[in-house]
Structures are given as structure tokens and as C-alpha cells.
Design brief:
Helices cover 31% and strands 36% of the residues. By secondary structure, it is of the alpha+beta class. It folds into three domains: 22-168, 3-Layer(aba) Sandwich (Rossmann fold), CATH 3.40.50; 170-216, no CATH class; 223-356, Immunoglobulin-like (Sandwich). Strand 3 and strand 4 form a beta hairpin. The termini are far apart.
């Protein structure tokens, strides 16, 4: 009986390994794929259309990307989705009052921003009627349903092409990021490297190394007056003693801040209330900063979670009901007016942190 159970265990793991090796496309549709960024873009030649109508079209493209498992960003991406519009028919109706009527064909393309190479495309005919040109175009673009199956087919095809691009052109991606960094466009460079999904393991690892080098050379101090009380995006402001939910049953609590030598250490604890181990990701670590007593932004030097540390990207396994220490390291300051960091796609602000020595 024991030998039979062992046989079943071996068979189970063999099957899982086989399934894993043959499930790259399934993995590509997991959360890992959300790291692939596609920027909805409006070509300059579309400026002949009302801006309000184009904003509706832009929103539709953002929804297409987000609803189908990718990240919709506002520029700085290697890949873009853009529309082409053809007016198939325009009329003035014989009604009272007369109305403007347009029949349009909109072609959506997902392409390489640098080369213009199109990876996937689809189209839709739409009709809009209104008292004015803007109202008519608004009505037409509102007909586009981002949940339509044709858009899923387009984006699924683009996913496969994009994965193939990262696997075969990784050195080119890193070269472009380094070129942006040379131009001091650090955020654009890091966003480009951050778009490489973990499912492209070799390129992902290379991009992390390249990003770490770029992050080390980013300016540490960026003057930004009057930012302490400015919160235009209504990001959550957290009292330092609060237990804050980050999502996915993960919580964080501020512990203390200490000045050790020339480094300011800010200590937190992470708490997982999941039943199983949870892999918590920390992307775009370089976006974390504090504001000192002069109102200046100081970017993070290093993030430490458990035994792992990085200044770009980090993944740590959190064990249920076991508190894990999280440490943010910054340059030496006298006061921390505010600390802001990004976790689970949300920014959190901790204000008036007291530093001890």
C-alpha cells in the first residue's frame, strides 16, 4: 500500500511538472502578464476629430487593455495600441431638427513603439447621430464595447507576440533602457525594464540587473517645494500606528525610524492573514521616497524584506501569521515629513515620522 501511495505521489508531481512546462501560455495570462505595459495612444492625424470624442476613444482602449490582463499606461511603453479612423459615410438627416450622422470604421493596432511593427489588429464599424459633430462622434465611439470578444482575440495574439519579442530581443530592450538613462530619463528607462514579465525568466533577470544599475545612478535629491501638504491624487494618508491593509490579506504596520551613521532606516512589519504562503511583489521600488525638513524628495536607497534586498524589484514569501520585517533605507535626514511607497498598485503615505538615534 505504501509503495502504491509513493507511486501516486511521484505520478502527481510528474504530471504537474509536465503541465507546468506546457502551460507557458496559461502563465502568460496570470498576474505576471500585468507587468506588460501597453500605452493607448492617439496619432497626431486624429486631431481633426473633437477632443472630447477622442477622450472617449482613449478610454475605450484603456479598458480593452486592462480588461484583458495587461497594464494600460500613459506613455513610456515599448508597446502601444492606437486607432485608425475612416469615415465610411456622413449624412445630414431629413428630420426636424436635422441631425449629423456618421458611419465610421475604427481599426485598432497593437504595435512596437520604436519600429511601428504591428503585432495584432482588429476593426469595428460604428454609427453615431447627433445635433453637433461632437455629439455624433461621441455617440459613435460609445458604441465600442471593450468586452467584445474580438478585442480579447487581438490582445491574446499580441501577448504571444510580445512574449516572443522579449525572449528574442532582450538585449535590445536593455540597450534602449540604458540609452534613456544616459539621457537622464530614469523613470522611462526603469518603466521599460519593469514591463518585462517574470514569465520571460531569462530576460526578466537580466532586466532586473540592468535596472538595479540604473537605479543606483538616479539623482538622490529632487527639489519639490510645497509637496508636503500636496496630495493631488488623494493617496491614502496613514497614521504611523495604524495597521494598514495592502490587499490580498496582507497588512503593514509602521514600527520606528532610526538614524544609523549616514543612513536613515524606516522599519515596518508585514503581516499575512492568508491561509497559505503568499508571494508579495514590490515593483518600482525606486518610486519610494521621503520628504525631508527642507521639503526635498529623497529617493530610497534600498528596500529590505526579510533576507532580500533591492532598489528596483523584489519578491518575498510571507508566511501566515509570521511578521516579516520591511526596512526602507534613505540618505541621512533630520526629519521625515512624509514617506510614500508603492505596494500592490497603490501608493501609501506615512506623515511626520519621528527619527530616533
Amino acid at each position: 500500500m505504501k509503495r502504491f501511495i509513493k507511486y501516486l505521489v511521484v505520478l502527481f508531481f510528474t504530471f504537474n511538472c509536465f503541465s507546468s512546462a506546457n502551460a507557458q501560455n496559461n502563465e502568460a495570462q496570470s498576474d505576471d502578464m500585468k507587468r506588460i505595459a501597453i500605452a493607448p495612444t492617439l496619432p497626431a492625424e486624429l486631431n481633426i476629430y473633437p477632443s472630447a470624442s477622442l477622450n472617449i476613444l482613449l478610454g475605450k482602449m484603456k479598458s480593452m487593455v486592462g480588461l484583458n490582463g495587461l497594464s494600460a499606461v500613459e506613455g513610456g511603453s515599448l508597446f502601444v495600441i492606437y486607432p485608425q479612423i475612416s469615415v465610411l459615410k456622413s449624412d445630414v438627416t431629413a428630420t426636424a431638427p436635422p441631425m449629423l450622422s456618421y458611419r465610421l470604421e475604427v481599426v485598432f493596432n497593437i504595435a512596437d513603439f520604436y519600429t511601428g511593427n504591428v503585432y495584432a489588429t482588429t476593426s469595428q464599424e460604428i454609427v453615431g447621430v447627433g445635433k453637433t459633430q461632437t455629439v455624433a462622434y461621441n455617440a459613435a465611439f460609445q458604441m465600442i464595447n471593450p468586452r467584445n470578444g474580438k478585442f480579447k482575440v487581438m490582445i491574446d495574439k499580441a501577448k504571444d507576440e510580445i512574449l516572443g519579442y522579449y525572449n528574442s530581443h532582450c538585449d535590445l530592450v536593455i540597450s534602449r533602457a540604458n540609452s534613456l538613462a544616459t539621457q537622464r530619463k530614469y523613470s522611462e528607462a526603469l518603466d521599460l525594464l519593469n514591463s518585462v514579465p517574470p514569465v520571460c525568466r531569462e530576460c526578466f533577470d537580466k532586466s532586473n540587473l540592468a535596472a538595479s544599475e540604473i537605479a543606483k545612478n538616479m539623482p538622490v535629491i529632487i527639489p519639490q517645494p510645497s509637496v508636503v501638504d500636496d496630495n493631488p491624487k488623494n493617496e491614502p494618508v496613514v497614521e504611523t500606528g495604524d495597521l494598514v491593509e495592502l490587499g490580498h490579506n496582507i497588512f503593514i504596520r509602521y514600527k520606528s525610524a532610526r538614524l544609523i551613521g549616514d543612513i536613515t532606516h524606516v522599519y515596518f512589519e508585514l503581516i499575512s492573514k492568508n491561509e497559505d504562503d503568499y508571494d508579495q511583489e514590490f515593483p518600482r521600488i525606486y518610486d519610494t521616497f521621503i520628504i525631508n525638513e527642507k521639503g526635498e524628495e529623497l529617493r530610497i536607497s534600498k528596500l529590505i524584506v526579510g533576507l532580500k534586498e533591492n532598489n528596483y524589484y523584489l519578491k518575498a514569501t510571507l508566511i501566515p501569521e509570521v511578521n516579516t520585517e520591511l526596512v526602507c533605507e534613505f540618505p541621512k535626514v533630520k526629519e521625515i515629513k512624509m514617506l510614500r511607497f508603492l505596494i500592490n498598485d497603490n501608493y501609501f503615505r506615512f506623515k511626520n515620522i519621528i527619527i530616533t538615534k
